[in-house]
Amino acid sequence: MSDTGTAIGNLKFYINSMQSYNSYVVRVGMDKETMKFNLYSGIVNWDAPPIIGVDENSKKGWNFNLGGHYVIAYAVSSDKKYFMISDPWAGYVGQAEKRDLKISVDDLYTGYIAVQIGYLF
Q1: Which of 103, 31, 95 is nearest to 72 (CA)?
Q2: Using CA atoms, how far apart are residues 87 and 29, in angstroms rounded to an integer?
Q3: Would you give the DSSP letter of residue 98?
Q4: 30, 63, 72, 94: least CB-packed within 10 angstroms?
Q5: One-letter-per-residue 3-state SS of 18-40
Q6: Mapping DSSP to helix (H, G, I), strand (E, B) and coil, where does residue 74 land?
Q7: CA nearest 42: which of 12, 9, 1?
Q8: Quick one: CA torsion of 46, 89, 52, 66, rounded to 10 degrees?
Q9: pLDDT band at 4 (very low <50, low <70, confident <90, very high)
């Protein structure tokens, strides 16, 4: 795990201080089924897009190669096999066409478990 960037606890504190609609919680080291259920619940039940820390690898379905990076899960298929991800890095590097990505739950979990920096939902 990198010691640079924003820690998930600080991210949670900031987001919760800026809104009162949904109180985000942190999860780290969850198994795939728990992660999938929590992300689905955040999107479908609470209308609160989860933020998830991942290791992006273009050989594993991602648009970029970035370790320890946060993305937003904003949609999910009804069978929970795919998530739509928005990656803020795309705007930062001027590649807006790569902002949105449909990724399998397997590839999402692989990226999540590789860095162990958690998710908010």
Answers
A1: 103
A2: 21
A3: G
A4: 94
A5: HCCCCCCCEECCCCHHHHHHHHH
A6: strand
A7: 12
A8: 170
A9: low
Contact 70, 53 (CB under 8 A): yes
Please state the length of the chain: 121
Q: In this predicted model, what pLDDT tens digit does every residue of 65-91 receive, in sequence order? A: 998 899 999 999 999 999 999 999 999
Displacement of CA 87 from its chain's centroid (Å)? 9
For residue 26, list its beta bridge partners. 120
Structure-token pair, residue 34: 């728990």
Residue 85's identity, in one-letter code, is I
Instruction: Look up residue 100 and give its two tokens.
Output: 């949105």
pTM reported for the whole predicted model: 0.91
Judged by DSSP in three states, 6 sits in coil
Which tens digits make up the pLDDT trace of 10-43? 999 999 999 988 999 999 999 999 999 999 999 9
1, pLDDT greater than 50: no
The reported pLDDT for the residue numbered 26 is: 96
Q: Count of H helices and E strands in the chain?
A: 4, 6
